Amino acid sequence: MNKTLSPAAAALVAAVALLGACASPSKVTQATPTSAMDTGTPAGGAGAGAGAAAGGTPQSSVSTVDLANRADGSNALNAALAQRIVYFDFDSFAIKDEYKPVLDGHARVLSRENAKRLVIEGHTDERGGREYNLALGQKRAESVLRSLALLGVQDKQLEAVSFGEERPAATGADESTWAKNRRAELKDR
After folding, report:
1. What CATH number has the domain bearing residue 172?
2. What value does the mean pLDDT take over residues 28-43?
C-alpha cells in the first residue's frame, strides 16, 4: 500500500516522535559543574567529563547513559519487544496508552530493519456475531498497523488480519477470560 500522509497526519507523526523522545525512562541527575577556568574550556564543553586535569582531579562527575545496558539490568527496548500483545476494552479498537511504548519499540526495530515483516492478528471475545467479531478484529489489527505506520514503519512491512473469536487465548465465560481474548498479536512473518 502506498499512502501519502496528509499535513495533519504528518504533524501527528512529528508530535508522536517528539513525545517518544521526551518519554525516556532514564533518570538524569544534575552534576556539580566545574569551573570553566579549571579546564580552559567552557563548562560542559569539549573538556567536560574528559578525564582528570593535570593535577589528577576529575573535571566533571557527568557520566554517559547507555540505555541498552542500564545499571539495574533492565532494557526498555527489549522489554517492549518481548511484549507482543495489545489488549483492548470491550467493543473497542482504541489503543490504550499503556501499550504505546510496546508499539514504539516494535516501530524502532522495524524502521531500522527494513527486511523484517510483521503480521498483526486481531482477535475478539466470544460475544457478538461472527461477522461483527471478524470486523472488530480487523479494526483492532488495522489500529495497531496505523499506529506503527505513524511511527515510521513502512506499509510493506505490515499486514493486518482478523480471526475474530475463532482463536481464543483463554476459554471461559467471565470478564477476565474475555479480556484476554480482546487482543491484537504482533507476529514475525
Report:
1. 3.30.1330.60
2. 40
Q: Is position 68 within any domain?
A: no
Q: Residues 1-39, buried b or exposed e (16+ Cβ, 10 A)?
A: eeeeeeeeeeeeeeebeeebeeeeeeeeeeeeebeeebb
| Residue 42 located in a structural domain | no
Which residue's C-alpha cell is 511511527? 151
Count of structural domains within the chain: 1
Condensed to tens digits (0 to 9), the pLDDT of residues 56-110 reads 554 444 444 444 444 443 466 676 678 899 999 999 999 999 999 999 999 999 9
Locate cell 477470560: which residue? 177
- CA distances to 102, 138, 144 from 95, in Å: 11, 14, 7
| Calpha distance 148→122 (Å, rounded) | 15
